[in-house]
Structure formats: structure tokens, C-alpha cells
Amino acid sequence: MTSLNPAPGHQNKLHGLDHLRALAIFLVFLFHYAIMTPGRPEWMGFFVQFGWTGVDLFFVLSGFLISSQLFAQIRERQAISFRIFFLKRVFRILPAFWVTLLLYFCFPFFREREALPPLWKFLTFTQNLSMNIRDSGTFSHAWSLCVEEHFYLFLPLILMVLQTSGRFKKSYWLLILLFLGGFAVRIYSWEYLYAPHMEEEDSWLYWYRYLYYPTYNRLDGLLAGVSMAAIYRFLPDLWTKVSKYGNLLMLAGLLTLTAAYHITYDSQSRTTVIVGFTFVAIGYGILVAGSVSPSSFLFQWKSGITTFIATLSYAIYLTHKGIIHMTQVIFLDLGVEKTGNLMLLLCTVFCVLGAWILHLVVEKPFMRLRDRVLR
Fold first, then answer.
1. Predicted confidence (pLDDT) per residue in 153-172, tens digit
2. What is the distance between the alpha carbons of residues 34 and 47, in angstroms, rounded to a whole number?
3. Exposed e or buried b per residue across 291-313, where buried means at least 16 C-beta atoms within 10 angstroms of its C-beta
4. Which of 21, 51, 95, 264 could cysteine-pair with 310, CB 3.0–4.6 Å?
5. Helix, strand or coil for residue 213?
6. In terms of pTM, does the model score above 0.90?
7. Predicted confidence (pLDDT) at residue 18 exceeds the cutoff of 50
């Protein structure tokens, strides 16, 4: 279950974040299922249109959780340990990732597409830079892990510099500059990297390569999470006042996301890239703030189902494309219609089952090993 060192007066278990993590993997799963299944059920139209933002919700959650833990140390005047921070991240992320890589590289039947990028790009988390999803699009969804790994590398380093230099109290300027810099970088990427290819038949390939996948264009979600964590940890008076209106925050987040849905309706438009990414990040950032407000229904609602899905969300994210592909191939031969709801149900069940096995066999043992190493 998602937990943090509590802010003053708050409980330790944040059930609302579990609900949002379950929502994120739900959006990602249905989005990828829809694009992998031509002729999909008509009711999946919304997920084709907006399901891609599930990964942005993951970014906001990661930004909030990771920075909140580091901010708690800074608030208590503790020095950030780069070694401990990375040990935690290595044991949490790499074992399941390496096992999934093993499946992709050793068992071609697991691959949802024909060709893989070179192994070194996965191992160095540089797969999302200059990515060619037409010729090597297998396991393409690992691009978001690259973004998060870059974040895990630079965030503690930046905080350590600010902490040791005594400039942390002014660090909100850095957040503002990074947000504004994101607009500038995306404008440059559109005008000088993507625009020259707009009239080409495969212009979509360049849109993904230069605008959607690179880390420097996808920081808004992480920054939104960091911003919410900064308020949560360092502005207790403001947070106490705001958190009294948790359900209104949830409503404000949903209204912002509704606006984002219309702004990004043409997902490959200039407006989507320049401001749409930011609207999505802000909307999910407000939802996260609402979910950790004691007055909100998400904070108070305890669900074993969403906790279970949230626990498996990383394993589902890693393996779902490969399992969807295998399930469709096997059951298509058995006479199940590929575009029907039964196939979707079967894929869902096997994705959850596969993730549960990966969690039991790989994730849990390595988390126990992590605890022993840290002790």
C-alpha cells in the first residue's frame, strides 16, 4: 500500500494514492489494448483518445512520492544519502525490469511487434531518445521508465546541491524555471525538429521521436508532483487550509482534465504538445492533492481491490503488451473473436495473473532483500 512519513496531523496510509495508481494502470492498459486491437469494441473510443495520459498520472504520482520522501528528510535537517536512495530504487525497479527484458529478448513469442531496440538502450535507459517505433517498436512503453530513471538520477543530486549550498528555501524558482523551460523546449522541438517532417507520409514517427518520448519534453507531470509534495511538506498552514476541501480539489482536478481532454483531442497537434501536456499534468496534480486530503472521499475510501491493483501496477505495466499479444494469438486460434469483449476479459485476467506471478516471484523477494541490505 502507498505510504509516506505523514505530514503533521495526517495518517500514514494514503489510500487515495492507491486508487489513483490503479486508475493510471487501467488507462494505460486499455489504451494499449485498443491500439493493439484494430476493430476494437466501440465503447473503447475514450481510452483511445485520452488513455495515453495514464502514464502522465504515473509521472505525477512518482514526482509526489519520491520528492515527498526526500523533502521529509530535508525538513528534519537530515542529509540526503545518494547511496540509500539509489539502493531503494534499484531493488524496486530493476529486478522486474530485467526479468521482463529477458522475456522479450529470449522468447520472441512474447513480443507484441517484430523488432526490439538494441539491448544497451534498455540497460542504459536511453531508449526514449531518438526512438524509432516503426522499425523497433517492441517494448516501446519502457520509454516512461527512462524518463523516471532520469528523474531519479537528477532530483536527489539537485536537492543535495541546494541543501549543502543553503539555497533550498529559494528552490521554488527552479521549479518555475523548469516549467517555463518545458514550454520553450517543446516549442523549439516542434518548430525545428518536427515541423520539417510534417508533410512526410511517416510524420507521426517524427512526432513520437522528437516530441512525445524525450525526457526534456515530458517533465511536466513529474514537476507537478514535486510541486504538490513541496506544499504538502513545507507549507503546513497552507496545506491544512487547502486540504479541508479535498472533494472540491477532486472536482477541480476533473474539470481541469476535462479541459485537457478537449485541448488534446487532436493528440498530435501543436496545442497538445505546447500546452496540452501541462494541462494534463496540472489536472492530475490537483487530483493527487485531493487524494491525500483527509476530507476527500478518495482518502477515506479503503478498497482491497484497488490496493491489490496498485501493488501489481508496475508488473502489469512491464508485461501487459506481451501478455495481450500472446493471449490474442492463442485464443484466436481457439475461435475467440479478437475484437470482442470476451477477448478483452481474457487478456485482462491473464495480465493480472502474469503480474501477480512476477510480483510474488521477483518483486517481493527483492524487496525483502532490500530491507535486509538497508538494515
1. 999 999 999 988 888 888 88
2. 7
3. bbbeebebbeeeeeebbbbbbbb
4. 21
5. coil
6. yes
7. yes
Torsion, Cα of 328, 329, 335, 338 (10° steps): 40
Look at residue 163 and give its three-state secondary structure: helix
C-alpha cell at 135: 522499425
Element (H, E) at 297: helix 297-300
What does the alpha-carbon distance between residue 217 and residue 210 come to, in Å, rounded to a whole number?
9
Q: Is 13 helix (H, G, I), strand (E, B) or coil?
A: strand
Torsion, CA 167, CA 169, CA 174, CA 177, rounded to 10:
-130
Phi, psi of 3, rounded to the nearest 5 degrees = -145, 160
H or E segment at 272?
Answer: none
Residue labelled with grid coordinates 527484458: 101
pLDDT confidence tier of residue 12, bands split at 50, 70 and 90: low
Q: What is the pLDDT of residues 316-325, one digit of tens each?
A: 999 999 999 9
Which residue stretches of 37-81 are H helix?
45-50, 54-75
Separation of alpha carbons 260 and 272, rounded Å:
9
Contacts of 204 (CB under 8 A, 6+ apart): 268
Q: What is the largest CA-CA distance in the chain?
A: 67
| Predicted confidence (pLDDT) per residue in 62-100, tens digit | 999 999 999 999 998 888 888 899 999 999 999 999 999
| DSSP state for residue 86 in the 8-state scheme | H
Q: Do 14 and 299 contact (CB within 8 A), yes or no? A: yes
